[in-house]
Structures are given as structure tokens and as C-alpha cells.
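We modelled each protein-ligand pair independently. The example shown here corresponds to the magnesium ion entry; the chain sequence is given first, followed by the ligand as SMILES.
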Amino acid sequence: MSSQIDNRAIKKALHKINNSEKANRSLKKRSEDFQVFQDVFNKPTLLTLYSMFNNGTLSYLNGIVNSGKESNIFWGVTPEGNDVAIKIYLTVASEFRKRLQYIQGDNRFKNINTNGHKLIELWARKEFKNLSKAHSINIPVPKPIAVKQNVLVMEFQGIDGAPFPTLSETEVSEPDLVEILDLVTMLYQKSHLIHSDLSEYNVFKNSNDLILFDFGSAVDVSHPMSKDFLLRDLKNLHRFFSKRGIPAFDVEKKFLEITENDI
Ligand SMILES: Nc1ncnc2c1ncn2[C@@H]1O[C@H](COP(=O)(O)OP(=O)(O)O)[C@@H](O)[C@H]1O
Ligand SMILES: [Mg+2]
């Protein structure tokens, strides 16, 4: 693309983002968001968003839902009027290098290019792939819709741009624990995945339904550390539910139960 066409594309993409400000919390007004705006909407990311506006994936982009160290989540709307969550991985984040262990060793990602942009794009693709796999066996996760470069689009889990509460933000009960342990078991046995970042912060609760999310770290069982990650996920759940006064489970026993059919 010539730079003149690039500039036009960027302008159009910005327009779609700016448009939404009228209808939503402003992205630019709040000063901390202005920093986010500058970090997130660099030229390559704007071009990626532009292609998504153009190919019918997105109609416009509303305000920010959450800003993290590695990514920011925005509320977007599709041409059909469906709400979507847009996870934009920060191309400036150095955090990814620390998390190389979740990619290296996973047989699905051999011969990877570990420098800068390519690594971040791989991270986005990996989360998309993990979500697709989990979704295909009916694990409740945000349905993945599209991924391009550092931008991942998925179903929005919430109402009017407000995400459902995570377990850390709401009441939990014993059936929730039973349900999560069942999901972890299904994930392992049917899709051969370990979430690897499971905690009260990465599970939504919508009345009685639980939805697992944030699958960037999830690894295939072939990963040499997959068992350690599974054990850590179980320990995290144990810690959280005990803290909330819900009868704890036997971590070791659960671990053996989940992995008993391994060959
Ligand atoms: N599909 C989604 N629908 C609605 N909100 C979401 C969705 N995915 C993420 N979020 C919001 O963004 C926050 C961070 O998302 P997460 O994927 O956990 O990113 P991080 O890697 O920064 O932890 C969530 O706690 C939630 O508020
Ligand atoms: Mg998270």
C-alpha cells in the first residue's frame, strides 16, 4: 500500500473510532485513556482495524473496557449490530518475552519467530486457536470471531459494553467450584488444553453461568510443563474458593482424576 493510501485508511479507521465517542464513554477525554489511545492505536494497528472495518468484521469501535499490561479490550459492534470484544495486543509491550514459555514447548507452535511484532501476532493467533478449540467442544468461552495481526475479535460477554463480573467481583457458591472443575477436566480430556492462567480473574459469572476466558497462555498437553500448569490452575482455584469459605477440594486427588487416562 502506498503511504498516501495508508494515510487515508488510517483517517477512516480513526473516524470509526472517534464516531463511537459520541455514543459512549470518551476514549480521548480521560487523560489515562489518552495514553492508552496513543499506545494502542499506532499505524499498523489502525491499518489492521481498517481492514476489519472494510471486510465486514467490525462496524465501529466503542470505548475501552479494560486496559492491561499486554493488551487492551474494547467494545465494538459488528455490521449486524452484535457486540464484540476486541482484544488489541500492545505491540509496545515487553511483557511477552517473559511469557515465551507458554509458546515454546507447545508442539503446535514449532519454529517460531520470537522477535517483536511476530511474537505478539503469534500470541493473538494462539489465543484465537485456543478459544476455537475450547468453543468447538462446547466449553463456555467467548466465541472467537476473527484474528488479524495483533487484533482478536470475539463475542462480547456482558451487556451494553459492561462485561459480566468475574468471580473475583461477585458471590460464588459450591456449585460454581464443581462446574469449573468439570470444565477444567473437559478442557484437558477433550481438547487437550490446560488454561495455564486460571484464576478468579479469568472466569465470568452471568447469573449461574460460568464463562472461562483469557486463553493466551493455554497450552497443549504435549507441552513439557503442562502438568505443572494444570496443578497451578487447580491450586489457584483451591486458594480462591477456600478464601471464600467454600469447602476445599483435594488438589492432588483432582489432579490425578483429570490426568488418569493419560497414556
Ligand atoms: N469477551 C469479552 N467480553 C467482555 N469483556 C471482556 C472480554 N474479554 C475480556 N474482557 C474484559 O477485559 C478484561 C481483561 O481481559 P483478559 O482477556 O483477561 O486480558 P488480560 O490478559 O489483560 O488479563 C476482563 O476482565 C473483562 O473485563
Ligand atoms: Mg486476564
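Residues 65-66, 68, 70-71, 73, 85, 142, 154, 156-158, 163, 166, 202, 213-214 surround adenosine-5'-diphosphate (ligand 1) (CB under 6 Å).
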